[in-house]
Amino acid sequence: MQRLATLAAALLLTVGAACADALPINQQPMYGDTEKAAALQSADDKFVAGIEKQGLSRADASRHAVKAGWGYWARRDLGTAMSRFNQAWLLDPENGDAYHGFALVTSMRGGAPAEVERYFRLATSRPGVAAEAHVDYGRFLWTQKRLDDSLAQLDTALKVSFTARNARAQMAFVHYLKEDFAPACTWAKGARVNNDELEPGFLEDMCRRAGTP
Question: Is residue 142 part of a domain?
Fold first, then answer.
């Protein structure tokens, strides 16, 4: 089970990354959340004007930028992913999925847990954020040993989307950490039906510990 914990935590927490203030401003969440130089502000204005000239709404363009960001995230091109999430935020600060991207990239770069959680909270406070934001927030919370808070986020993920990817698998794992093996078995069964990612043998082990066939 230790290997499962290590693998899952590695999705969010990587140690030894460069400090955020050493990164270019376009690779810091919300462009460093500071006053921009005139040249950068001018570039932003031109970018937004170009989007509007194409006939796209800012909200639609923001969603496209997030989608591109996830593509770079999947390839572990964190710099370009952050640039796209920043563009999404610039276009629509109410797009919760942009903050979700900030949280994951910041975590992968070894950001402080408080900073990572700040972005998760911003993400999950926005209407319409994807269920995956709650799943990843729930995963992050159990790495911080906040098991009940983790379960609450995972429950919210399933309310947003009944088929939320890996929500049930994470539920099962948190119950394992709590040594509640009966619900761990039940959630692991649901995770298998939902085609979530489960450690080989995890379902059988939880049900064996629970005394459930």
Answer: no
- Give the residue carrying structure tokens 């290590």: 6
pLDDT digits (tens, 9 = 90+) for 65-94: 999 999 999 999 999 999 999 999 999 999
Is residue 124 a part of any domain in this protein? yes
Spatial CB neighbours of 36, under 8 Å, sequence gap ≥ 6: 25, 44
Domain total of the chain: 1
What is d(CA 51, CA 27) in angstroms, rounded to the nearest whole number?
A: 21
For the chain, the C-alpha Rg in angstroms (whole number) is: 19
Tell me the pLDDT band of 113, cut-offs 50, 70 and 90.
very high
Per the structure, the complete domain to which residue 94 belongs is given by 1-12+25-30+38-129
Query: Do 36 and 25 touch, CB atoms closer than 8 A?
Result: yes
Q: Do residues 120 and 103 touch, judged by C-beta distance below 8 A?
A: yes
Contacts of 112 (CB under 8 A, 6+ apart): none
pLDDT given for residue 44 in this prediction: 66
Residue 65: inside a domain:
yes
Are 210 and 181 in contact, with CB atoms under 8 Å apart?
Answer: yes
Q: Under a CB-based contact definition with an 8 Å cutoff, are residues 90 and 59 in contact?
A: no
- Say if residues 81 and 91 touch (Cβ distance below 8 Å): no
pTM of the shown model? 0.85
In terms of Cβ atoms closer than 10 Å to its own Cβ (0-12, 13-18, 19+), residue 179 is: exposed
Helix segments in 54-180, DSSP class H: 58-74, 78-91, 96-108, 113-124, 131-143, 147-160, 167-177
